[in-house]
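New to this. Please check this protein:
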Amino acid sequence: MTTLASGTDTLTRDALTVLQPGFTGTTAPDWLLRRLGEGLASVGLFGRNIASPGQLAALTAQLRAERDDVLVAIDEEGGDVTRLEVRSGSSFPGNHALGAVDDVELTHQVAHELGRRLASCGVNLNWAPSADVNSDPRNPVIGVRSFGADTELTARHTAAYVTGLQSAGVAACTKHFPGHGDTAVDSHHALPRIDVSADVLGERELAPFRAAIAAGTRAVMSAHILVPALDPDRPATLSRRILTGLLRDELRYDGLIVTDGMEMRAIAGTYGIERGSVLAIAAGADAICVGGGLADDATVLRLRDALVAAVRAGELPEERLAEAADRVRALARWAGAAGGPAESTHGTEIGLHAARRALTVTAAPGLGSPDTFEPLTEPPYVAALTPVANIAVGDETPWGVAAELIHLLPGTVTGSFSAGDGPENEAGEDAGRAALQAAGPRRIVAVVRDEHRHPWMAAALDALLAARPDTIVVEMGVPQAAPRGALHIATHGAARVCGRAAAEVITGVPGL
């Protein structure tokens, strides 16, 4: 193990140890390597840091040349939220698709293969899975990242995911405690509030976390949400009642507690990242995630110095900071003992297999059944009705079925339509008319994402189906709206393999 810089005192080393910062670029900057030498123990990776598996492996090797026990974390949920395949779309369906299949062995296999790929690139901590019960269908930030709206289903698949991922030597970080599913607000933008009783929380939101703890999850990520039944004053990330009283004392969890990104507006907009980080560690968090947006040496130094100053001012007990740093080091030891990447025991096509099983195919009343559907043999027009991207997903990851249909039916044409700036219904009608005009005589494949959350999208579909009832509809979000179209395909997620599975149905050509 690399010897830490002798000029760095214990307090400063501990303050650096609890940080999980990001950075820009596909190689490690000098400042990051320098901080690793001074005590920084974790690094967070995002899509901007990854160009290919080989490049990622070289990057993690560069980090370990400076500190061989560094925790390399990533936000790789599979499905809609991917960093490994940010420019192509994921080879694995996300949680909602796995929940739709409801085969816990399949979930274990998918998580194991995903973990194996992460381990082969030198990643040993994954900020996944999402254990949130998606009880509010309007949820703008969880949605298909959840296994579903059923508590027991979510709990059993959370446990399967944790054991599958960790069997490949990658630590799971179950999120977003105590549950981010019952909200219509995105914590990237504001502070969500969940107004349900403690009894409901205990029976619904907490059940998947209990299952994850029983399965041995090595880390848990806190949510930036206000839950008045548990703490009326502070969001979960900053609440001692929630992180220590509930998670530690009541649920008997003794692993690493990681915060969600501290630069998210739910925290940064009210407390600021420095004050927020001090409060989080004081509340019981062990690691501060920062760097999705703020990714530079100045941010690391500001947070380090804020923690040191809080200890010296008596605002943060030195023992609490030392305890947090010890938990980071304990996870690093577990990761080191886990060894290298596991063998692929389920095959590299397990993701596509799961995506195929996750499809729900419905024919419109009076238009036959899925079994009598005549696959397309001529290139269609693909109308993608595109909502504003969820920040957790990002707008750089491609989605839809167009690329797969172009491969199968060369000459396929595609267009993207959005709500624009006008009233939603008018925007939807305009988008529908524009898609009809662009399609001409071609068969239309309309691709939507959470139709139930976007009135303009529903209005666009109304216009399309009124004029062209033979339109095929592919829903790549949560299939909450009633199925419609000559053929309706619910993929339960927008991963690349979900689009591929849908394209196979549309064309009748399996095994692209």
User: Anything to note?
Assistant: Residues 1-7 have pLDDT under 50 and may be disordered. The chain has 18 helices and 14 strands.
